[in-house]
Amino acid sequence: MGKNEILTIGLLQIAPCGSLQSNLNKGKEYCKKAKDRGCDIALFPEMYSNGYDIYERPFADWKNDAISIESEFVSEFGRLAKELEMAIGITFLEADGGAPKNTLVLFDRHGEQKLKYNKLHTCDFSVEKDLGRGEDFYVTQLDTAIGKVQVGAMICYDREFPESARILMLKGAELILVPNACPMEINRLAQLRARAYENMAAIATCNYPDTVPDCNGRSSVFDGVAYLPEMVGSRDMCILQADGSEGIFTARLDLGMLREYRAREVHGNCYRRPEKYSLLVDKKVNEPFIRERKR
């Protein structure tokens, strides 16, 4: 694999500062540090604009934290992406006229907005019942210094539904970005490993450090390549596993290796039987298992 096929991903495992402006300043500082480390993409944890500070506060309070996609906070990261020539995945609580949404915007290295994703699987058993929901999963072709990369996104709880990553894979995703805000314990890490394995896709997850309540760092990247021709048995797909501390954690994703693997292996979209999966979308069967949102 050629040197120019390596995509460097920077996971900004950083704590919020208590105000929108402070979070903006700190976020920009860490993006610049990520660029100095040679990153092609910098990813923030979930809802970084307010540090996912929606627990132990009434909805009437934290809904006022919501900001527009045209806000200075979001726009500044677009300008910074162009200045640094580095893609930036910024997360925020979005105000869009209805219920606020848990949102990721991905800017490319030219400062152009390439993807906007609203969390689709909101945690309706908890405070997220007051959030608006996303409507679909999206994949974009991201222009990077090493060429075009097909990138999709899911946010935190989305990872617990195999359909999330599967849809992204079917839409062509090679790399799935996952902003996160919860304890990344063994079972959740296993979910990410499984999503990468079963879809032959790289999964990059950025969490808050362990100084943030109910978070423990452990941001990770699984490269999606389980087997190599020259190896007996399988290989560990985990190319990055952070500890709980605050910092920038980088992973070098070999896209050439991933693409060769996807071309020859049988996972992902090979040998599927979609005509047998109709039960997944049968409204009559699924209705008893779909819970109404608690209000």
The portion of residues assigned to helices is 10-25%
Strand content: 15-25%
**Helical element count?**
7
Sequence stretches where pLDDT stays below 50 over 5 or more residues: none
Question: Which CATH class?
Answer: Alpha Beta
User: What is the CATH T-level topology?
Assistant: Nitrilase/N-carbamoyl-D-aminoacid amidohydrolase
Structure description:
The chain has 295 residues and is of the alpha/beta class. The protein has a single domain (3-289), classed as Nitrilase/N-carbamoyl-D-aminoacid amidohydrolase (4-Layer Sandwich). 24% of the residues lie in helices and 24% in strands. The chain has 7 helices and 12 strands. It has helices at residues 20-36, 59-62, 72-84, 162-170, 186-199, 255-264, 283-286, and strands at residues 6-13, 41-43, 87-94, 101-107, 113-118, 139-144, 147-153, 175-179, 202-206, 220-222, 238-241, 247-254. A 6-stranded mixed β-sheet has the order 5-4-3-2-1-12. A 6-stranded mixed β-sheet has the order 6-7-8-9-10-11, covered by helices on one side. A hairpin with a 6-residue loop joins strand 3 (87-94) and strand 4 (101-107). Helix 1 packs parallel to helix 3 (72-84) and helix 4 (162-170) packs parallel to helix 5. The longest helix is centred in the first third of the chain and has 17 residues, at 20-36. It is globular. The model has no long low-confidence stretch (mean pLDDT 95).
